[in-house]
From TrEMBL:
The keyword Transcription regulation applies. One of its GO terms (molecular function) is sigma factor activity. InterPro entries: DUF6596, RNA_pol_sigma-70_dom, RNA_pol_sigma70_r2, RNA_pol_sigma70_r4_t2, RNA_pol_sigma_r2, RNA_pol_sigma_r3/r4-like, TPR-like_helical_dom_sf, WH-like_DNA-bd_sf. One of its GO terms (biological process) is DNA-templated transcription initiation. This is RNA polymerase sigma-70 factor (ECF subfamily).
């Protein structure tokens, strides 16, 4: 594993641990970045536990900085206290620094868009350009949101902890959102590589921690089921030469049946709780996709109708169009697509191109593929779109 891979895998954990120890997110992040810069200079061979090395080095750098910048006795005392700690101590009933940091970043005092940007930066290790691409917004806007969120946490003295049990339900929705977004960025990255396994693995681990904390909360179970059923298909998403393989063409023997079985069991638990929500419905859709040798598209469409009623977003409407095409054909789906507005999102013109191709309207499909190619940021998806465009009949 090279240093870049270690950075991707360990950054969020290291920042979370240092944030608890230092009580200062900015200082924690700067110390971890300094430690990785030191590793770049010093590592000839990767240490057995690179994350522990980074945390120890970052803590030492933070102590040095506190001593240099101290102008008051309490800063000296803080540096001395940190330097005497052998191991960062766990606080509270949940022994997971990253779960605590998620609840801190998702505090209701922070604006929703700032919560997501900050969590993806600190826990996902995404840089500002990656977050900007994921949300189709300017990099400067993302940077401002992160800075404002950190300042709010500091100025409002937002505690670094998992909320008390009676507070959890109200605090849960933004936490579920950021875990969902973290996994999505890992499963279909906005960067050059299609998949970032480190983000997928970490999002699932944190979802499991959350499910252990709230075992009777159906949306938590629904999210975990959704992530597991999606992750189960990962090995089949790329072909022998790294090309994208769509769901209908995937070799189902490559799917992880253990994860499929666990995901289906969680969906059944959600049904028994009888408190439906968006993540549970998405998990049910994934369960239909992974049940048997083919997909029951009528059942999928019925579930998307339910999901659209609960969360009438353009992305849900776009996904529903795909199901409409399978049930009623591309012409009906193309009419439905006209009602979907997602400026700057490459999958909308890509979907239009596929529907036009199925209708034999190759010239219009070619233009739609060109529009999608101008918007897509992932190289694997770009290659897939180019291949699909090249398969069209030559222009007259």
């Amino acid at each position: 594993m090279d240093l870049e891979d270690i950075y991707r895998a360990e950054y969020g954990r290291c920042v979370a641990t240092l944030a608890r120890v230092l009580g200062d997110i900015d200082l924690a992040e700067e110390a971890v970045q300094d430690a990785f810069a030191t590793a770049l200079q010093k590592w000839q061979v990767t240490p057995p536990n690179p994350g522990a090395w980074i945390v120890t080095t970052a803590r030492n750098r933070a102590v040095d900085r506190l001593r240099r910048e101290s102008t008051r006795a309490d800063r000296h005392a803080q540096a001395l206290l940190l330097s005497q700690q052998d191991e960062p101590r766990e606080v509270g009933p949940v022994k997971d620094d990253q779960l605590r940091l998620i609840f801190t970043c998702c505090h209701p005092a922070l604006a929703p868009d700032a919560r997501t940007a900050l969590t993806l930066r600190l826990l996902g290790g995404l840089d500002v350009p990656e977050i900007a691409r994921a949300y189709l917004i300017q990099e400067a806007t993302v940077a401002q949101r992160i800075v404002r969120a950190k300042r709010k946490i500091r100025d409002a003295a937002i505690p670094y902890r998992v909320p008390a049990e009676h507070e959890l339900p109200a605090r849960l929705p933004p936490v579920l959102t950021v875990l969902y977004l973290m996994f999505n960025e890992g499963y279909t990255s906005t960067a050059s590589a299609l998949i970032r396994p480190d983000l997928c693995t970490e999002a699932i681990r944190l979802a499991r921690e959350l499910a252990a904390l709230m075992p009777d909360e159906p949306e938590v179970l629904g999210l975990l089921a959704l992530l597991l059923l999606t992750e189960a298909r990962r090995a089949a998403r790329l072909g022998p030469t790294g090309e994208l393989v769509l769901l209908a063409d995937q070799d189902r023997s490559l799917w992880d049946r253990t994860l499929v079985a666990e995901g289906h069991d969680l969906v059944r638990r959600c049904l028994r709780l009888n408190r439906p929500g968006p993540y549970q419905i998405q998990a049910a859709i994934s369960a239909v996709h992974t049940d048997g040798a083919t997909t029951d598209w009528r059942q999928v469409l019925a579930l998307y109708d339910q999901l659209l009623a609960l969360t009438p977003t353009p992305v849900v409407a776009l996904n529903r169009v795909v199901a409409v095409a399978e049930v009623y054909g591309p012409a009906v789906a193309l009419d439905a697509l006209e009602e979907v507005h997602l400026p700057g999102y490459h999958r909308l013109p890509a979907t239009r191109a596929e529907l036009l191709t199925r209708l034999g309207r190759d010239a219009e499909a070619r233009a739609a593929y060109d529009e999608a190619l101008a918007l897509v940021t992932n190289e694997t998806e770009r290659a897939h779109l180019r291949t699909r465009r090249a398969e069209l009949a030559p222009a007259s």
